[in-house]
Amino acid sequence: EVSLVHADGVHELYLGQVRGPRIDLATDAVVRAAGAKDYVAATRMYGLVDAHLLWAWDIAALGQELRSHASARLARVD
Prior knowledge:
By secondary structure, the protein is mainly beta. It is 0% helix and 71% strand. Strands 1-2-3-4-5-6 form a six-stranded antiparallel sheet, with no helix packed on it.
């Protein structure tokens, strides 16, 4: 379980599974403040590949179906 609260008035409750070096999460609930944008669902994926942390965030918002919103490949800096 993961609970995230955004400064723009969106609160997400994620449920998911850990499968080896990968974590898959999907929203179980999205709560929005009165002034928050139309935001209905999201998924997040985290994975460790070749010592890099991969991250992807898909959202369904503003009348759109679930689609890619942001992603990153993070590397450790010595």
